[in-house]
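REVIEWER CHECKLIST
Item 1: Sequence provided? yes
Item 2: Single chain? yes
Item 3: Sequence as submitted:
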Amino acid sequence: MEPVAIVGIDCRFPGAPDTGAYWDLLMRGADGVGEVPRQRWDAAEFHSPAGEEGRANTTEGGFIADPDAFDNEFFTTSPREAAAMDPQQRLLLQSAWRAVEDAGIAPRDLAGTRTGVFVGIMGNEWAQLHLTDYDNVTAQVGSGNGYCMTANRISYHLDLKGPSLAVDTACSSSLVATHLAVNALLSEECDQVLVGGVNVALTPALSIFYTQAGLSAPDGRCKPFSAEANGIGRGEGVGVVVLCRLRDAIADGRRVYAVIRGTSVNQDGRSNGLTAPNRWAQQEVLAAAYRRAGVEPSDVVFTEAHGTGTALGDMMEVRALGHHHAGRVGKPMAIGSVKGNLGHTEGAAGIAGLIKVALSLHHRVVPASRFAAKENKQLKLRDHGLRLLKAPLRLPAGATVAGLSSFGMGGTNAHAVLESAPARAARPEPVGAAAPGGIGAAVFTLTAPNAEALRRNLLVQADAAAARRTALGPLARSSNRVKAGHRLRFAAAATDTAELVATLREAAADPERLTRLSARPAGRTRTAFLFTGQGSQYPRMTAALYERSPLYRAFLDEADAALLPHTGRSVRDLVLAGDEAVHSTRWTQPALFAVGYALGRTLRELGVRPGMLLGHSVGEFAAAVLARALPLEGAARLVAARGALMQELPAGGGMLAVRAAHTDLRARIESEPRVGVAAVNGPAATVLSGDLTALERIGAALEAEGVTTRGLQVSHAFHSPLMEPMLARFAEVADEIGGSVPEIPLYSTVRGRVLDGEAMDAAYWVEHVGATVLFADAAGALLDAGPTHLVEVGPQPVLSGMARRLDRAAGDGPAHVLPVRGPESTGRDLAEALAELYRGGVEPAWDAVYAPEERVAHPLPPYAFSTEHRYWARNPVRRSAQPGAVRQERPAASAAEGPHEPGSAPSLAPVRPGTPADPVADAVLAAVGLVGGYTDAEVGPHDRLYEDLGFDSVMVMELKNRLESRLAGIGTLTVQDLLPRLSSVGDLIAYLRELGATVPAAAPRGDAGEDRALPHQERTA
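Item 4: Structure as written out by the authors:
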């Protein structure tokens, strides 16, 4: 059989709220057994030490904490639907999400994939309580119950397209589900699968059954293979694992906990009783699993046994194992059972054992079996080649094979053979190691549905990063890959783990800082690159970035290599050395081109794809290369020739910045043939260029009239008539290079607009030398196109301020992003820029942020769900009360932010029901609240019915009926007309007003028989 990898794990068992706590519980030899919580049933009411008819002989068992807690807002599930859902569905939803994250996958990335879901489940007590309460059966109660829904709901919420099914074979359910999942992978029906098992004990029914069948331990504890064994103790819990083919796991660089080598399932058939174990069937299922795994029994180092702690069950299992292992003289196989720690978790028993074996192989130690100190001598374990683990078993180096058994009460048996992960999978190789990468800093990202969820999870991540020595690169890269998909995006740059931990904690504690580091992208991003021109240069520009960022270094080296044949000296070396010659025109222009090209290519490699380009004067050469209008080599030759030829021109030229409109200066320069308008940077920002003597005359006259002027430190009169002597020689070079039409919209500062099918050919570049730089027109046209981000590409910000003064858009306008901020800039600024772009909606190519050796998976704590909302069966086994569902209320929440801290005020104050001036809104808000189970304070006009309130087609139909009964003047609504108007509650209100909706004067606030007037703590499903 092809090996299958276990790549993700999440679980919650008695005394162990997560996977780490589960492993700790096992290694300590502790248990999670205690008194039956009053939330479940009054154990004393159903208890009889003697186990009288209709009574249980124990008041103890293994119970998880807070099974009523469910983060319904995270899954966009209305309170009414959440209250109707079997808690087993809720537990599986959250555990599935966390297991996928543990596998190094962003759960939302699975949408639309052939991912399967296989769930083992045995109990369905919630359905027994709710589907027999006929007066309160609703559509939500129907979908909230049923075995199939435990799997189907996971597939629905994650949008998975693979097989989705629940399996009930009693105690072996979740290991049988694993067997089916493995087969689905091997047949390539799926590319990955989620396998889960769950059990929640809501009633004493099975405790009574076990007692009446003589199977129940009076102290509520399983004691596998122990002399003290006296029956079953009930347990509960949930576990989910993520499986994929081992070859796929290795190719994707996933961490592998363990490998499934073979599985088998069979049935007892007709034996000595329907519920009695069958030794012969058990030994055959072992043999079949060994064959399929291609191992000999002697290869198996330890087996996680079914081990219920019943006399007959333990004896049959030992004999079945002994059939295969009795010959292991001197080297008996180790056995144990997790049921000693948890109790018998029934439908979750197989997954509990699977996770224990996987963790044992991963950590290379097998925990001791609880209650093993007093071994049951009657089992004669040594004679059967077995030994009970009384102390942890350290596993030797190399491959280790283990077994796992799970037997159903009705006779369906399952066995699995596992093996430790191969070395290359246990320590994954870096992914994409051949590709360059690294920017000198890291970007840690996290997403959440709302601010409170973000704060909660920031603290979880900070605590985990602080608790262990962790390299920043793999940690941050894993956050980029896994913690994605929610509307609220957090991103922070850091250079070491300590800085990151401090940043996360400060953001969680300071709302203002959290706001700065997080945002909700409004829609599709449109990014523009603005390339700076001459005047922005300085010695050692971007030197720190070159030293710290391998990615930037590679592209600057590439530009330098393209320039070297035409400059005769390394531009890169000149810049890095801090040579003042960088201010000499023959070096300035190629140096700025090299920096602009390298920074632009670095941003593109990081996944920042420009939708618009603009270059100021010489900055247009790098823009043309990114637009694929010029090849790198051609542009390098052209810009080198341009700088050298300009340098050869006679001295005596200069440039004058004037705070005036260029139209107001036209008359001044008409009489000066050696002066021209070099640049129009804004409505009152003009640069004149030409003969120095003429400029001095013009400047003096302007100053006398109160117009501000400033002479620029330049070597020549760029973009002026004085450039004409170089044009013929430059044209010869340009003719050889040519040029083509930009493939990305390029806003030309020669034309003052976007180039529309026009080539940037030789004629264009010759004109470019002397033409006025129409920055204001070009940038204005670019701003009119609606970019969301302006990224200035150059050694220091120059154009951002000019563009900000030009922005004519209403509101905040585009975000200005600065990857390099000047002489002190390092890779940190580039990382900050990338973080800002991500917060704004850009999807970076995260691998490029990190050096090849950092591109390895690093486990992060899974998502921390809110426990604020509680849903439970009201008095589930009180004979005097009908069952229902109680929802414990949350504080009021705004439509924009979801829940906030207790006592805080909503950030958005919607118009509430009861406002005399708006009775239609009152009625609609009340109806929406009733259908979803929301309180008055939880629904506002800006709430989206589907995305925020969790409405579905069934709820829409109910809402339609309620609106028709509450409002006059709207006639009979059709679903077809209603659906397009359900984007938000406010849109629905506006639509109903258009129809002429009114509220009858005598209409009561609520419909007769509605439960809106019930106290919040007694809201039923």
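Item 5: Key structural point noted by reviewer: Residues 878-916, 1004-1021 have pLDDT under 50 and may be disordered.
Item 6: Recommendation: ____
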